[in-house]
Amino acid sequence: xxxxxxxxxxxxxxxxxxxxxxxxxxxxxxxxxxxxxxxxxxxxxxxxxxxxxxxxxxxxxxxxxxxxxxxxxxxxxxxxxxxxxxxxxxxxxxxxxxxxxxxxxxxxxxxxxxxxxxxxxxxxxxxxxxxxxxxxxxxxxxxxxxxxxxxxxxxxxxxxxxxxxxxxxxxxxxxxxxxxxxxxxxxxxxxxxxxxxxxxxxxxxxxxxxxxxxxxxxxxxxxxxxxxxxxxxxxxxxxxxxxxxxxxxxxxxxxxxxxxxxxxxxxxxxxxxxxxxxxxxxxxxxxxxxxxxxxxxxxxxxxxxxxxxxxxxxxxxxxxxxxxxxxxxxxxxxxxxxxxxxxxxxxxxxxxxxxxxxxxxxxxxxxxxxxxxxxxxxxxxxxxxxxxxxxxxxxxxxxxxxxxxxxxxxxxxxxxxxxxxxxxxxxxxxxxxxxxxxxxxxxxxxxxxxxxxxxxxxxxxxxxxxxxxxxxxxxxxxxxxxxxxxxxxxxxxxxxx
Amino acid sequence: xxxxxxxxxxxxxxxxxxxxxxxxxxxxxxxxxxxxxxxxxxxxxxxxxxxxxxxxxxxxxxxxxxxxxxxxxxxxxxxxxxxxxxxxxxxxxxxxxxxxxxxxxxxxxxxxxxxxxxxxxxxxxxxxxxxxxxxxxxxxxxxxxxxxxxxxxxxxxxxxxxxxxxxxxxxxxxxxxxxxxxxxxxxxxxxxxxxxxxxxxxxxxxxxxxxxxxxxxxxxxxxxxxxxxxxxxxxxxxxxxxxxxxxxxxxxxxxx
Lengths: 497, 256
Prior knowledge:
Oligomer: heterodimer
Radius of gyration of chain B: 21 Å
Structural class of chain B: mainly alpha
Strand order of the largest sheet of chain A: 9-10-11-14-15-16-17-18-19-20
Distance between the termini of chain B: 43 Å
Largest sheet of chain A: 10 strands, antiparallel, barrel
CATH class of the domain at 318-492 in chain A: Mainly Beta
Number of strands of chain B: 0
Order of helices and strands of chain A: HEEEEEEEEHHHHHHHHEEEEEEEEEEEEH
Shape of chain A: extended
Structural class of chain A: alpha+beta
Order of helices and strands of chain B: HHHHHHHHH
């Protein structure tokens, strides 16, 4: 084996020494792993007696840091605590200097406050501090307490001791004696009364005894009655027994009934029949059975019930509207009025009945064919009846935002489509009616806008493909009341008395 | 009476003279230390001699010192029921005082005396003079490596002594005296600080300087043949030991 070189030996030796130093430093000296590992807070104590640099700071008995420095500031001890980074203390923390061990080592205990208190920032000040109790101060306090006690006992001895005290004591004792004597006399004086009371008591008890003595007969009677009653009861029971025996042996009517084979047979048959019926019903045979068993019956019943329900609900949904609209035709400078009643049994369905006052009047055309001498002349005669009312009767159905109408429009047949916008505030409508083969149909486009509950504005283009020059733009206004509104309105009208 | 004063005076003068010579040697060594080339080979050789070869005695010394310290501390602390403090007492005693001082004394006995004997022999056999004639400064060649080895090796030996001393104390305290090991270690960690160890190491470096300087001085200025060498060796050990104790007091007073 080659000998280690001198350098290697020395190097090895030094490395061992450094390793040991490092180990001991970490173990004993608690090397700091970096400046950020700890943070500082401080607090002012009235006295930091016994506290030295480097003593531990504990929270709940766990060491969380050390006392970094103690200085005097404005007559108070400023103690700087260095705490581990992970230790979170609230601003309401209390720092207490406490003693541990036989040698009276001091350390700082942090008593945490409420968990919801804001966290103490690094460099913050601990407001609440409790200084250590000095044993000298304690002894001084004890000494002063002792002095007080001594004074107290002195006062006592001053009051009670001495000739005067003795005299007053004697007076007190004399008084006590007198009191006892008086009490004694009172008792003696009242001896008679007490005796009388006791006598009364004894009389009372004697009376009681007498009462029970004189009523002895009555009591005895009661007992005898009881006894008789019980004997009668026994006889009754015996009689009952006899009856049941008779029944058992088939004697008497009931006995016969029960004991008669025939009766039993009949009853059995009845029961069998009953069971048969029940089974049949169960199987769905017979009318009742079918009724009970048939799915259809059940369905019918359900439907009936739901129809009734629906009807009842419909009643609730049923609404009626009264509507007036006036359209001012810009071309003919006339007003066309519509009065209508809208009956709405369902939300998506309504019937519209109404009359229309059309200034254009009602056109009446008559064709007269006359044959004179083989020549046939056809005479067309058109009459316009002014101030003649037209009628409206429509049925409407609504699918989501689209409504379809059909029926009679201004006394002629027609169809219409409505488109509802903005929560039904704006309605676009296109109506087509008066499908006369000789003329273009009457088409009407209108726009109803409802800014308020009862009032709506309207505008549109009437009869815009008319070949008779009747096309006209119009604007107008409308009023619409539901039955509910009317009810409210009518009840709201003040009635003069 | 005159003679007494004469004797005291002569002793005083001699002490001052010797102190001056030691200082001169130290300054010369410092100067030569800074002047290249440094003879690393010689330095390592001295390091091996002072440090590595002293390891065994230092370990033995440290272990048993720690053990006996635990015994004595236990005896005292038991009087008022503070046996848990034995560990910290042993650790504090070893790191602050006994480690550096006892290690230095051991090394003085082992290496300081050897230095004096070696240099003394070289002096009386005129080898040092021969070095001068070869234009090789004997201070640079002989004294500087020894001083460097002393200053560097003593702290290393001390830290080892501290460590084995604490272990010895633990073995005695926990093993023989049945002190709770948790309390023993906890108290030790709680009370002993890093400063205690470092101050001990600084002291030991100073002691290393003293013992090597005294050893070299006594050997370097030896006169009077083989008898002179023996005398120089004895004196080197005595003077170095006493100097270590005295300086220990002042160093401790200054540092703590």
